[in-house]
Amino acid sequence: MGRMSFFGGGYCISKYGVEAFSDSLRLEMHSFGVKVCVIEPGYFKTMITNVENLEKNFHDSWGKLPEEIKASYGENYLREYVALLKVLQKAYSSNLSLVTNCMEHALTSLHPRTRYSAGWDAKLLYIPLSYLPSALSDALFTFFYPKSAGRA
């Protein structure tokens, strides 16, 4: 999510920052012989992808919203968003060794890669989509997003 924002704006902001910081550090450390690598994992089963936690957080946040904002989104938006979470849960990988293997290679290789992609979805979906024109990737991603009450 450091290449494109989908389903988690706040989370994606932090990943964009990590990407930028890592690229800067990689260039700055080059003259010292220090190699900096970026691990770009796909969708893995972690606490941040735990559907029960996410659903609780979304409902808690929804409950704190002013009625005007709730009306703009509509109750159906929240239901569809949570349903999408449950569909996405079926796509995550629980094999975290895919990520740790990338980390191990980056740390022990004589010639580590600049970037490592872990997981089939990173390699076959997110990375390729990040190279498409924004209009195409936006069309694909917005197809999955729930529609607000004003755009139903």
Automatic annotation (TrEMBL):
InterPro entries: NAD(P)-bd_dom_sf (IPR036291), SDR_fam (IPR002347). One of its GO terms (biological process) is steroid metabolic process. Signal peptide: none annotated. One of its GO terms (molecular function) is oxidoreductase activity. SUPFAM superfamilies: NAD(P)-binding Rossmann-fold domains (SSF51735). Belongs to the short-chain dehydrogenases/reductases (SDR) family. This is Retinol dehydrogenase 2. It comes from Lonchura striata (white-rumped munia).
